[in-house]
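Quick start: what a row looks like.
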Amino acid sequence: MSYRNVQNVYKQNQILNATPKKLVIMLYEGAIKNLKLAELSAAEKKIEQTSNALIKAQDIIQELMVTLDFENGGEVAENLNQLYNYFMTELIKANSTKDSESIKKVRESLEELRDTWIEI
């Protein structure tokens, strides 16, 4: 088995054995990682890499939106939904302008949310 296959199996096992809280944290970390990549790519004027990283981050944020439990989450779920919608709008704009500052603002907000989840 190749190193890459071992990595994939390990990652799948992490996901399958993770608690719901850990899954949310993993999603945040994935989005943050892609936004960091987008920031670096934008600074280097690598348009396609920037776009791909932003799209991956948007996909992850979309997954976070889908998992919101409005019935049990009440106001918290509503507030997170509004934040995620804002992030999506900002990332769509950033993808058209390749503005690394906009990307950074969303990344920093996601880092704060991730840190909050870790503390819970």
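That is the whole record. The chain is about 90% helix and 0% strand. The chain has a mean pLDDT of 88.
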